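**User:**
Everyone, produce one record:

**Assistant:**
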Amino acid sequence: MKIKNILLVGVGGQGTILVSKILSTGLLQAGYDVKMSEIHGMAQRGGSVSTQVRYGEKVHSPIIGIGDADILVSFETMESIRWLEFLKPDGIAVINEHEIPSAPILSGKIAYPKGVIEAISEKVNTKVINAAEISEKLGNTKVMNVVLLGALIKSMNLTDIDWESIIKDLVKDKFVEINIKALNAGMEAV
């Protein structure tokens, strides 16, 4: 099997790293060799966070090069444009239609960029998810990340892995049920 490359990007506090751990665990249980790397940056201050997950028969490095990602999952709209150069021309961009203003935007120094999704849609196969709205309907906006995980799983045809048992193992008991609902909602959204 050819190596597959998944790039997950967002800002601190969105659960990007938890999703990467769930994803990596599932891929390992499915028998793949998996490598994961994470970059926190200024995550605690709302800065950019990225994780890279590579899987296949044998993976030698956890790093995805420019133009090598099969799929880019953006937990925040603007992050998708920051990381777009890492996506293959025939790759898929899964974008959460959710804006989190950075410090310069909040201070009024710059405006949040307009037309991000439209610009990306002109370049690559793009799937837009409003994970905030979906998670709000489920009753907990903190599961937005798992909604996006569901969209990723469906987009990469990884539905034959027992994701529910992995969530049960990696998520606190009181949040398991809502996370499983979020996973399924994300799969249905694409």
Notes: The chain has eight helices and six strands. Residues 4-189 form a domain with the Pyruvate-ferredoxin Oxidoreductase; domain 3 fold (CATH 3.40.920.10).
